[in-house]
């Protein structure tokens, strides 16, 4: 297994499978995928398959101070659940963002992923709200700077 920077196109099959109920790949793009400063990370297995992905782009959140990035499209292939891939990809992303002087990451976390983000040190900053295509979410953030 190795971690690599990938293109947004390379995230689409896992996004489709895990986050969009099998939608065709083009419909799994985010408007933020190609903005300045956006990047995409993956865990790639020994057969060169992308088995865990996340995407990040510069985006401040109203109540938080400093430089922020939004995390989107966090997904691990079901065959690889709970093997620490998501965790080590987040850690890699955190090191990358710290080196760029970023102060925090925030995301709209799905209900099923709350325990994962809690383990990663994220804190809640909203009550639960509904995203029409994706169910109940809470907004969470991870402070990077002290
Ligand atoms: C959420 C998700 C990305 C987690 O990925 P993962 O690679 O399985 O996570 P890891 O193995 O790195 O888990 C890290 C820690 O979180 C815990 N964890 C992960 N998913 C969990 C869950 N559903 N419930 C409880 N704990 C969980 C792990 O046990 C591990 O704990 P540890 O550090 O004490 O060992 C994955 O379950 C997934 O793709 N879900 C479907 C898509 C999704 O909902 N994405 C989030 C969108 S906001």
CATH class category label = Alpha Beta
| CATH superfamily grouping | Gcn5-related N-acetyltransferase (GNAT)
What fraction of the residues are assigned to beta strands by DSSP? 25-35%
Mean pLDDT: 96
Instruction: Specify the number of helices.
Output: 3
Bound molecules: coenzyme A
Count of distinct strands: 8
Polypeptide structure, described:
Strands 1, 2, 3, 4, 5, 6, 7 and 8 form an 8-stranded mixed β-sheet that branches. The chain has 3 helices and 8 strands. It is an alpha+beta fold. The protein has a single domain (2-143), classed as Aminopeptidase (3-Layer(aba) Sandwich), CATH 3.40.630. The structure holds coenzyme A. Coenzyme A (COA) binds next to helix 1, strand 4, helix 2, strand 5 and helix 3.
Which helices and strands appear, and what pairs or packs with what?
Blueprint: E1 2-6, H1 12-19, E2 39-44, E3 50-58, E4 68-76, H2 85-99, E5 104-110, H3 114-119, E6 123-124, E7 129-131, E8 135-143
Parallel strand pairs: 4-5
Antiparallel strand pairs: 1-2, 2-3, 3-4, 5-8, 6-8, 7-8
The structure holds coenzyme A (COA).
């Amino acid at each position: 297994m190795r971690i690599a920077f990938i293109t947004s196109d390379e995230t689409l099959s896992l996004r489709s499978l895990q986050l969009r109920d099998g939608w065709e790949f083009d419909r799994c793009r985010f408007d933020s995928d190609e903005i300045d400063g956006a990047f995409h990370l993956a865990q790639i297995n020994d057969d060169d398959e992308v088995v865990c992905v996340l995407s990040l782009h510069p985006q401040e959140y109203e109540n938080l101070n400093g430089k922020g990035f939004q995390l989107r499209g966090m997904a691990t292939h079901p065959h690889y659940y709970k093997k620490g891939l998501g965790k080590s990809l987040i850690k890699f992303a955190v090191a990358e963002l710290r080196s760029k002087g970023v102060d925090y990451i925030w995301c709209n976390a799905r209900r099923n992923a709350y325990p994962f983000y809690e383990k990663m040190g994220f804190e809640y900053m909203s009550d639960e709200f509904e995203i029409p295509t994706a169910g109940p979410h809470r907004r969470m953030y991870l402070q990077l700077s002290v």
